Amino acid sequence: VKGSQKCELNCRAIGYRFYVRQAETVIDGTPCEPNGTAICVAGQCKSIGCDDYLGSDKVIDKCGICGGDNTACKVVSGVFKHTLTNLGYHKIVEIPEGATKINITEMSKSNNYLALRSRSGRSIINGNWAIDRPGRYEGGGTMFTYRRPNEISSTAGESFLADGPTNEVLDVYMIHQQPNPGIHYEYIIPGDNVISPQLIAHRRPGEPLNGQLGMPESTSHEDEDLHRETDILTGQAAGTFPVIQPGRFPSHQPENQVPAMQPPRQNREHNWKQVGKTECTTTCGKGSQYPIFHCVNRITHEEVPEGYCDSSTKPIPEEEACNLFPCPAFWDIGEWSECSKTCGLGMQHRQILCRQIYANRTLTVQQYRCQHLEKPDTTSTCQLKICSEWQIRTEWTSCSVPCGVGQRTRDVKCVSNLGDVVDDEECNMKLRPNDIENCDMGPCAKSWFLTEWSDRCSAECGDGIRTRSVLCMTNHVSSLPLEGCGNNRPADTTPCNNGPCAGKVEWFAGGWTQCSTECGSGTQQREVICVRKTEGNFDVLNPYECSYMEKPPSQQSCYLKPCGSKWFHTEWSTCSKSCEGGFRVREVRCLSDDMAASTQCDPQLKPEEKEPCNTQDCVPEIDENCKDKYYNCNVVVQARLCVYTYYKTACCASCTRVANRQPGFLGRR
């Protein structure tokens, strides 16, 4: 509806294209539009500011301040375009604490993946060489939306989006597998804490950090060989993601620290005892747990405060594997593909994989491992919108000829379900109504039919003749000669003279080639050049010299021998009845190539000489003043609105016609 009607109560009948106003105003507080913030008040659409005042024009600025002027924060953005060589994880940028409106986006689709990790060592998205599904992931005090567009139809790259603010520093990585298409990053930080994106200073941008994100599975002696690099900017370990194991502490103090004063040696009445283990980190698929040590009395084994035991002798908790049995397999459901049709009923597909988790990694396994679960459907029907349909906008025009067979046209348009004219491709072309058809205005009077005089004289110079065709015809479409035009046949020749022959510039035509077909009608070719005729000789000239004369044809039709007899027929006669079934006839003859009657035609191929016509019901005469004022009155009939006086008048012809077919259809209201 129009903007001025947004606060009216308008309803559209399901399956129809018209709507009816049920009330002049909706209830106060009703939204003006489905996704807008403005509301209707006393029939008028009023805006609401971010301060929740009606009519206020205040909006939230990019810093998140209602009515702000965008000066309380700073936008930090850039593009990571470095060329990478090694496969694996490469750090792109770090997101500082307090960042908002975070947007990390691949500039085009590639086989690379984005990854996100917190400074505390926790992988948030795509860690440990495990690719997560698109979705929402919590990290750094905010919720990140991970998007990976459709792999078939979209050319956009994947992205991380978050509103923030973050409560810790986050690092963004790229899992490099093919040339870097460029990564655009952007976030907002408070104005009094403006910093720039920090990259690792002591290495080239994009250098792989040991080729992985997160700690791989390894035995205890491999843990000691972990390679780390020191971040000069932050003083923290950069390189592979260090996994900080609970309860594991360094066995010696850093060299730059002053050793603390040793406490007095405790007596040997108390010692450390393992009293249990921590809960396993996972319920299946290989987790980890650590022994728990408490200080106890050596004799009674009663627990006492840890101060009674020597802290330097407390055993270091060692990680132990637990719950080694694999987790139950499950169906990993992919996203639906795009609908196979832009309108109407179509199909969409999705990928279903049998997956199993082991050692914090999700693996694809054989489908029989998921046989205990019902497999989800891989295909489904879909419908994006109702298809457009054909609509006849005008009546037939008058016939193009006053007699004989001509053509008439009408306007046919493809109309959407909202009533707008759209491209024909949006409608089913197989169902398109004809917008042109033949029309028979009856036979023309018998008379001589003439062509124009030929433009070329039979003699290239001197005296010659020009010709024209003369035929007696009763139908301007037929070419069969008929009797009855009288004896005053117009002349088919007239004298002509192209002037003296000596020294004249003219076109010269060579001999014709062989006919292109062995029987029936074909074509012949010849060469045409511009020459000047002199005494006993010809000079070839530039074609421009002869351009003022009509150039003879370089191609003509030819006929070598007849190919056989064929069926000929006249046009259909006028239908014997205008409605309720009549018939029309035509004459059918078998003619040879010289248009003589023949009996050599195939009887199986003989065209019909009589056929039914105008089988539609007769429509009673309608008052001349009873006409349809609108082209879509068929919709009014379908919706049964003819019972209302307004529609009965506006669509008089259509309503009267349906009333005659269905007595009692029209009533009074």
- Please bin the fraction of helical residues: under 10%
Number of helices: 4
CATH architecture of one domain: Sandwich
Low-confidence stretches: 193-266, 475-482, 664-669
Can you summarize the main beta sheet? 6 strands, antiparallel
The radius of gyration computed from the alpha-carbon positions, rounded to a whole number of angstroms, is 46 Å
> Would you give the CATH topology of one domain?
Jelly Rolls
Question: How much is the average pLDDT?
Answer: 79
Question: How many β-strands, per DSSP?
Answer: 43
Strand order of the largest sheet: 5-14-7-12-11-10
Shape: elongated
Strand content: 25-35%
Structural class computed from helices and strand pairing: mainly beta
User: Whole-Å distance between the termini?
Assistant: 27 Å
Highest-level CATH class of one domain: Mainly Beta
List the helices and strands and how they pair.
Elements: E1 9-12, E2 19-23, E3 39-41, E4 44-46, E5 73-80, E6 88-95, E7 100-106, E8 113-118, E9 123-125, E10 135-139, E11 142-147, E12 159-162, E13 170-176, E14 183-190, H1 220-223, E15 228-230, E16 237-239, E17 270-277, E18 287-289, E19 291-297, E20 320-322, E21 330-333, E22 346-349, E23 352-358, E24 361-364, E25 379-382, E26 389-392, E27 405-409, E28 412-415, E29 421-422, E30 436-440, E31 447-450, E32 463-467, E33 470-473, E34 493-497, E35 505-509, E36 521-525, E37 528-534, E38 537-541, E39 555-559, E40 566-569, E41 582-585, E42 588-591, E43 610-613, H2 633-638, H3 645-650, H4 652-661
Antiparallel strand pairs: 1-2, 3-4, 5-14, 6-13, 7-12, 7-14, 8-9, 8-13, 10-11, 11-12, 15-16, 17-19, 18-20, 21-23, 22-25, 23-24, 26-28, 27-30, 28-29, 31-33, 32-34, 35-37, 36-39, 37-38, 40-42, 41-43
Domain PLAC: 622-659
Protein name: THSD4 protein
GO molecular function: metalloendopeptidase activity
